[in-house]
Amino acid sequence: MHRGNTGMMGLGNFSTRRMAALLRKEMLETWRDRRALWMAVCFSLLFPVMIAGSTTFFVKKHAEETTRLALLGAERAPLLEQRLRSDTLKVDALEQGEPRALLAGDYDVVLQLGEDFAGDYRNFRTPQLYLYVDSSSTATGRAERHLQERLGKLQQLVVGQRLVARGVAPQLLAPWKLEVRDVSTPSGRGAMLLAMVPGLLILTLFVASLATSVDTSAGERERLSLETLLLQPMPAWQVIAAKTLAVASMGWLGSLLAIAAMVALMPAMPLAELGIQQATTTAGVITMGLLLLPLALLVAVVQILLALRSQSFKDAQTQLSILQLAPVTVLMALDMSRVELDHPLWQLVPLVGQQQWLKSLLVGDPVSLPLVLAGSAASLLLVAMAVALGARALRRESLLGAL
């Protein structure tokens, strides 16, 4: 009995050493691939910079954006020019001008008063205003809405003054008064602005591990090194598991860099001007990285399986390039369709669960630890099933002939 136990322990230690040697070999080959490493690093740093830049540009553009209005016939209604002018609406009173030429120049909209404007206004008739716009201009819609808003407020003021002059209470024309009160929190507004970030973080996993997964599967098969590896006395699941860990390390590195870059750029983003408070802490960053680890393993093993079943190295690249668009497409479709994802079962679904957790952590909201553990366990279960499926595929002789 003692010899039997000693033999089994020796066999277990030998299997562990083989697994460690195989994992070391896969890790070295993965991290020595400079092309794959640079691809992972560059893409991971690219999208946080794009989000920070686009947010800054958006806020700056709207803060400095003003509407240029050319007012023709202003001498017929001097008060109209004064009432329309504001910090964001610049009014230039012109004695003459051709609306088409003015719109082609420096003006966003042109407002022209009718010839009988003054007489009609004094006689309580409806004077005519002509608004000229260029619908082919991108700024026209915003400028038109801005002017309509200013004219609407001025119209209400004139109507109220006329009613008071005749002894009629203006309240008779307004049976109720609607006041909009925004009860959203900074974290809620932040969730809307940063809704795209979780999807891009997940996309980073796919892109960062793409080159490595193709090279370690379809690439090794074309170089005939996979056949040599399969001739070694080790279970097929260990081969798939070692390759999965190596590929996942590259994808996980990409996601960690993306998270770190995103959080580092947040102080430079004008979030405060949008009413958003940066609530992500160092603990939140570490938590986000840990939450993406099971998903990194799942993405890696799925990429390896798809690459193994491909006909060639180029075919594997094509299939995985299409695959990497799938998660963002699905997550964007869920957001745009406004599907309610509040049910706890949604957090057991890979991709969806990670998206919800990342959204909460980015704006400082708490996440449920039991649901996180259950969702991560579900992802790891799928990883184990995929490893078993990959081990069966490696035992097929037709795999090495799929060149």
TrEMBL record:
Localization, UniProt: Membrane
Membrane topology: Multi-pass membrane protein
Residue intervals of the ABC-2 type transporter transmembrane domain: 41-334
Keywords carried by this UniProt record: Membrane, Transmembrane, Transmembrane helix
InterPro entries reported for this sequence: ABC2_TM (IPR013525)
Keyword Disulfide bond carried by entry: no
Main localization of the protein described in the UniProt heading: membrane
Pfam families: ABC2_membrane_3 (PF12698)
Protein name: ABC transporter permease
Organism this protein belongs to: Microbulbifer halophilus
